[in-house]
Design a protein that fits this description.
Blueprint: H1 2-44, H2 50-73, H3 82-86, H4 89-120, H5 133-137, H6 139-164
Helix pairs in contact: 1-2, 2-6, 4-6
Amino acid sequence: MKKFFSVFFKIVQILLNLIESWGGVLFLGLLFLSVFFQVILRYVFSSPSPELFEIAQYSFIWTIFLGAPYARKFDAHIKFDIIFLKLPRKVQLILQILFDLFFCIMLIVTLMPVLGDVFFYKIIKSEVLRIPWTYLFICFPIFMILTFIHNVIWIVKSFIELFSGKALPREVEPWV
């Protein structure tokens, strides 16, 4: 059973890395290229491209909604934690577990209505490229699912530290 969970978590970790890291890189690269070519077309050839502008907009949205769960993976979001850090470690862990549980419940409760809205948007198409909005905004439910997974991982790590007294090793952020 322990081996099953080990293999399962390794597969989940690989899939998360593929989606977040490589998906984020893909959309950030697409954003960079579309803005780069927009500048060239606009200022060198005096011919702006609405297609590239639309690609840049949606690439930016996808980059944001894939980057946020990636930051959550490393617990790297900006926090106002001056008071929180003054508390004893066990109290910090309990508060963190409660907050993460609350956020997970909110994600679960809102996921189905969000999916309903996203799939409703298939009738609306983007202005220039005529892409159904479902494909453009499916990044939000993906963001919700990825964030939920990372919150559950942090809840498990916090419980382990709370009951064993030993903190699990943290993954090193790739940007450090």
